[in-house]
């Protein structure tokens, strides 16, 4: 089992920190590294060169080869690490994806990010606990299941039958998604995933609900909630989307004042016209539910005598600040102010409802403003939360004459009964207002309006009896717990805290069959709920014994009545509300409750932090709040039953937030735009493989690692092609190293002290690189890590070290110490590469391991020994000089004096012989030719003014010292074996090659 063996041999010190994927960008020189230029067709010395040899291919052919390594680096590795890794448990709890529909790029982003994290933790030596899960209940699954049936059949189905087909649908979707997730190389316990429809999960969820009931956090109340007539259920705010172009028929309506009150009456005497309260509404269909008109105590109102082109003088009450805008709306030709009055003096007046003739009050409300309308607000406590709050304090009950399908009931009036409120009902109300002369003005009004995110149809606020969780009492504890959570990005911390404090309650009930039932019985006589620990505990016991479907299938309600209530003379019946699916996933933390170690919750599918905070509430708080009830709590206030000192922390210690998926134009992906890219089109290719090639899984994973995931993420053919090119260069790098290590005996690795200075320098850079990578990945800055790896590949390897060492690797004897020192460094780099790639391009890492298994046995030099600031500083200076040398060589090339750098010899002149620059150049003089890739290099300590030969790079400044670099054609001849100009005669071997061949 090579993969687990590889992980077993990973040193757990700093060397184990070569983590996650790579983003290697090489120069074209790396391609040349596999062969040192074009040899003569019949060069008799070619067989004597130690050219790279490896079966590791440049092209991965990933779509056909990755499956060979999948089990080893996923299923097998997961079980192995649990048994063998020595460090404490790391728990990443899977916020479950929804078991509905094909997987998309959002799934890929989320799942692969999680997998990168846990693979990194495995490399760190942690045992990792990751159980994949699925959210299986809810309306979307129910609707999809019913869509598969004939419409006539679905309408006749019993709840138990709906639950059956919905469950079948959910389980089918789970298996489809599971296959896709596994194909992405996601490591986890796939044989034992959790599903929110599992019996054990449902029982735990019901027990969490019961704990919340016992602590007084659950209540039932008749109040307005977002209601979807198209889905026929209550909705949470997270289930809404807003249409910015919704068009309403707005109306100005007048209500006759019946009792004016003392202050208003004195003004009324000045007018012979009837006095009206003038209101403005964008929802005429809510007027049958009107129960009051609201004013603000502190606003000044004007009693306005108005004459229009179409009517005689009429007297309206309007907010003083809105007089001008109202007159413009009414097309007034004359007007006169009869007096002013405060809102407080208007409170207590009454008016006649123009639709039903009832007398209603004028009340005070804080939400009234003078920003739009008339300053007098039509108030329907059954269709607005602010209206509800204003009326509740006065004992005015919510009234909603609209049924669950959105049609007016008889309570709205016979003329409206049976009409759909949003359409013909709205028109009927307006027509009737005209008939009774209540309509003053109608005009279209474009504004933002909430829609059901599933059906894409408008929703309403409608008063129904719903179950709520009291979030307000838990806010401070939740915010305190969030203070201990590491937020990535950090900006989400403050936003989530503010959002938490803005939520007072959570509507947890839904009116659908497919879900976990709210386990409550209701009294037959008055409909009051039996909300006691004894009752709920008995219901949970029965469901545990008979299965959750028994709540719908058992005929006898008394089966669910606890023994102590069967003899109290009361009769009870079951309620069939189900729990909000966010309650399902929000209690999934109970699966890891009690596990020792650090819990991390990574977001579900997409967490649109930069778009809306709604998802933070529905994804984070439902899993945060119930834990404060579930855990042990202690009363801290004498006589108080609502204050608790919670002895628990957040169920997660780190919260990562990632963004939406966008196309390459920056547009959100949607079916309507036709810009959706499926993960399978990347891994398996499209119908036309030339246009849409099969890139394989590792390219998909490398794309994820390369994204700046805390923002919205772009993907498209060009992006994926660029990632593929990165992988090609990664493989080129690895192929060069493996090819040059094919004959390397790791037991004979060179000691650090015998390494050349350039080799020590490269190990220093490697050590520094691993530290940079570790810092980046500890911060979950995967994109930063990819950039760091790209820079390391480009600046340290392909454009420098590989060019410097290939002469030794190809031309020295097989066992020469000079060659072995280079191989020792390459072995360390390839080991780092494998560790680096393992969490991201796990299949590629496994393929590399196949080629260099024996190298993992190589003892690793300690990082402290590799850390060599002196050689680092010296080589930084030498590389600066190399830059000047390259410019001199380019001058010679342009003049066609030389073609390759090997044809040249270099002279470096130091103006200050006693300078540090001169000292370092003299120290490394014997290594400069290999560093400059020339046949020879010499240091000259003389004044710059005396230099007058060759192609000069004049007066360059290096380390504060002036130097001159000259390039001249080599005097000696080209060696036919190594191609260096070291031979005394033409077409004869140089001394080094003759010694190697023992000639």
Automatic annotation (TrEMBL):
It is an enzyme of class 6 (ligase). Transmembrane segments: none annotated. Residues 75-588, 645-715 form the Aminoacyl-tRNA synthetase class Ia domain. GO terms for biological process: isoleucyl-tRNA aminoacylation; mitochondrial translation. Coiled coil: none annotated. Keywords: Aminoacyl-tRNA synthetase, ATP-binding, Ligase, Nucleotide-binding, Protein biosynthesis. Residues 759-904 form the Methionyl/Valyl/Leucyl/Isoleucyl-tRNA synthetase anticodon-binding domain. GO terms for cellular component: mitochondrion. Its main location: cytoplasm. CDD domains: Anticodon_Ia_Ile_BEm. It comes from the Eukaryota. The keyword Ligase applies. GO terms for molecular function: aminoacyl-tRNA deacylase activity; ATP binding; isoleucine-tRNA ligase activity; tRNA binding. The keyword Oxidoreductase does not apply. Its EC number is 6.1.1.5. Pfam families: Anticodon_1 (PF08264), tRNA-synt_1 (PF00133). InterPro entries: aa-tRNA-synth_I_CS (IPR001412), aa-tRNA-synth_Ia (IPR002300), Anticodon_Ile_BEm (IPR033708), Ile-tRNA-ligase (IPR002301), Ile-tRNA-ligase_type1 (IPR023585), Ile-tRNA_ligase (IPR050081), M/V/L/I-tRNA-synth_anticd-bd (IPR013155), Rossmann-like_a/b/a_fold (IPR014729). It is found in: Cytoplasm. Belongs to the class-I aminoacyl-tRNA synthetase family. NCBIfam families: ileS. This is isoleucine--tRNA ligase. It comes from Mortierella isabellina. The lineage of its organism: Eukaryota, Fungi, Fungi incertae sedis, Mucoromycota, Mucoromycotina.
């Amino acid at each position: 089992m090579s993969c687990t063996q590889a992980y077993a041999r990973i040193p757990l010190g700093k060397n184990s920190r070569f983590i996650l994927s790579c983003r290697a960008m090489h120069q074209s020189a790396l391609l040349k590294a596999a062969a040192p230029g074009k040899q003569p067709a019949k060069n008799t010395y070619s067989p004597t060169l130690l050219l790279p040899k490896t079966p590791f291919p440049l092209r991965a052919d990933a779509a056909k080869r990755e499956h060979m390594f999948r089990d080893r680096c996923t299923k097998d590795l997961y079980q192995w690490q649990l048994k063998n890794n020595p460090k404490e448990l790391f728990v990443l709890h899977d916020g479950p994806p929804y078991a509905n529909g094909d997987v998309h790029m959002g799934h890929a982003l989320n799942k692969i990010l999680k997998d990168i994290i846990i693979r990194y933790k495995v490399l760190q030596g942690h045992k990792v606990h990751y159980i994949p899960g699925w959210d299986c209940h809810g309306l979307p699954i129910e609707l999809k299941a019913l869509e598969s049936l004939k419409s006539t059949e679905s309408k006749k189905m019993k709840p138990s039958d709906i639950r059956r087909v919905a469950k079948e649908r959910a389980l089918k979707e789970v298996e489809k998604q599971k296959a896709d997730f596994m194909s992405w190389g996601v490591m986890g316990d796939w044989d034992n995933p959790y599903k929110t429809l599992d019996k054990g999960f449902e029982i735990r969820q019901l027990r969490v609900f019961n704990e919340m009931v016992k602590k007084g956090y659950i209540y039932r109340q008749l109040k307005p909630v977002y209601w979807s007539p198209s889905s026929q259920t209550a909705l949470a705010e997270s289930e809404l989307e807003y249409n910015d172009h919704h068009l309403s028929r707005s109306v100005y309506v007048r209500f006759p004042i019946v009792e004016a009150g003392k202050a208003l009456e004195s003004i009324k005497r000045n007018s012979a016209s009837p006095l009206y309260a003038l209101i403005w509404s964008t929802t005429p269909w809510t007027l049958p539910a009107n129960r009051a008109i609201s004013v603000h105590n502190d606003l000044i109102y004007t009693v306005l005598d108005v004459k229009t082109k179409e009517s005689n003088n009429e007297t309206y009450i309007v907010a003083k600040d809105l007089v001008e805008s109202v007159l413009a709306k009414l097309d007034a030709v004359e007007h006169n102010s009869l007096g002013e009055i405060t809102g407080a003096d208007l409170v207590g007046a009454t008016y006649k409802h123009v639709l039903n003739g009832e007398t209603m009050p004028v009340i005070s409300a804080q939400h009234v403003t003078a920003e739009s309308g008339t300053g007098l607000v039509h108030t329907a406590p059954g269709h607005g939360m602010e209206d509800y709050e204003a009326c509740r304090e006065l004992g005015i009950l919510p009234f909603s004459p609209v049924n669950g399908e959105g049609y007016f009931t008889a309570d709205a009036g016979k003329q409206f009964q049976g009409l759909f409120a949003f359409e013909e009902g709205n028109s009927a109300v307006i027509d009737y207002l005209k008939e009774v002369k209540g309509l003053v003005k109608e005009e279209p009004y474009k504004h933002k309006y909430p829609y059901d995110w599933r059906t894409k149809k408008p929703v309403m606020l409608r008063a129904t009896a719903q179950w709520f969780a009291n979030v307000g009492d838990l806010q401070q504890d939740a915010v305190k717990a969030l203070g201990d959570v590491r937020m990535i990005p950090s900006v989400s911390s403050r936003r989530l805290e503010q959002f938490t404090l803005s939520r007072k309650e959570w509507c947890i009930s839904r009116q659908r069959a497919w879900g976990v039932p709210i386990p409550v019985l209701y009294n037959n006589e008055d409909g009051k709920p039996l909300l006691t620990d004894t009752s709920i505990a008995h219901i949970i016991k029965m469901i545990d014994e008979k299965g959750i479907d028994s709540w719908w299938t058992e005929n006898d309600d008394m089966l669910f009545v606890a023994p102590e209530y069967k003899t109290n003379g009361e009769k009870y019946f079951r309620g069939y509300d189900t729990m909000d699916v966010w309650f399902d996933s929000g209690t999934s933390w109970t699966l890891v409750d009690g596990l020792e170690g650090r819990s991390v919750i990574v977001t579900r599918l997409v967490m649109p932090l930069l778009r809306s905070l709604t998802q933070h509430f529905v994804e984070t708080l439902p899993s945060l709040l119930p834990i404060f009830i579930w855990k042990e709590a202690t009363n801290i206030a004498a006589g108080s039953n609502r204050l608790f000192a919670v002895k628990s922390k957040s169920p997660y210690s780190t919260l990562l937030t990632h963004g939406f998926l966008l196309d390459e134009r920056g547009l959100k992906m949607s079916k309507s735009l036709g810009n959706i890219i499926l993960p399978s089109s990347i891994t398996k290719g499209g119908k036309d493989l030339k246009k849409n090639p099969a890139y394989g899984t590792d390219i998909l994973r490398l794309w994820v690692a390369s994204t700046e995931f805390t923002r919205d993420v772009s993907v498209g053919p060009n992006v994926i092609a660029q990632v593929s090119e990165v992988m090609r260069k990664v493989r080129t790098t690895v192929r060069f190293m493996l090819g040059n290590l094919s004959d390397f005996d790791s037991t004979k690795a060179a000691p650090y002290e015998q390494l050349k200075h350039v080799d020590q320098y490269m190990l220093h850079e490697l050590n520094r690189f691993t530290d940079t990578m570790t810092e980046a990945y500890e911060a979950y800055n995967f994109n930063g890590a990819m950039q760091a790896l790209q820079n390391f590949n480009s600046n340290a390897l392909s454009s420098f070290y590989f060019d410097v060492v290939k002469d030794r690797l190809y031309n020295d004897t097989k066992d020469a110490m000079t060659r072995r020192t280079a191989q020792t460094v390459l072995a360390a780099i390839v080991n780092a590469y494998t560790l680096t790639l393992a969490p991201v391009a796990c299949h590629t890492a496994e393929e590399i391991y196949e080629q260099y298994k024996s190298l993992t046995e190589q003892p690793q030099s300690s990082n402290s020994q590799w850390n060599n600031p002196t050689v680092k500083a010296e080589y930084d200076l030498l590389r600066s000089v190399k830059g000047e040398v390259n410019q001199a060589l380019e001058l010679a090339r342009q003049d066609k004096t030389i073609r390759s750098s090997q044809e040249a010899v270099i002279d470096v002149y130091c103006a200050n012989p006693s300078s540090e620059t001169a000292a370092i150049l003299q120290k490394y003089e014997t290594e400069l030719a290999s560093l400059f890739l020339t046949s020879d290099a010499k240091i000259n300590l003389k004044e710059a003014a005396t230099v007058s030969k060759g192609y000069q790079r004049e007066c360059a400044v290096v380390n504060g010292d002036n130097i001159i670099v000259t390039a001249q054609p080599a005097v000696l001849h080209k060696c036919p074996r190594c191609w260096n100009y070291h031979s005394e005669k033409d077409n004869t071997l140089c001394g080094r090659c003759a010694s190697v061949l023992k000639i």
